[in-house]
Specification:
The chain is mainly α. It has helices at about 5-25, 40-60, 80-100, 105-120.
Amino acid sequence: MKKDSLEVMFRLRKEFMSALAASHGQSPNVDALDLSEKDVQRHLRDVSLRGVEEVFESLNELKNSKSHRKTELPDVDKEKFLEEWVDAFNYFFTVLILSGFTADDLYEAYVRKDAIIHQRIKDGY
């Protein structure tokens, strides 16, 4: 994936957030929230947990994941699995956007963390 693809994903999410707010009669504002405010922290926690719920929904598509299951269910709806992950990413993108982060911020943090975890492997972490 190219970095500009990530920027498109952020833009699309912002557009959805604005459209959703407008459809509820609210100001379509996707500006960063004040993370020090208790209500904001609660809201971001709620949105994050909705993303986690979507991850769990994706796991429902992995029918053979139970170690105690004796029968095999080889069919996996990969499209549904991916769709649930897209739903999760949308919630996580919302949290990042409302926290004031950009696609560039996420990309740079990802690259920094990737270097750290590779170094950990080299160091025998």
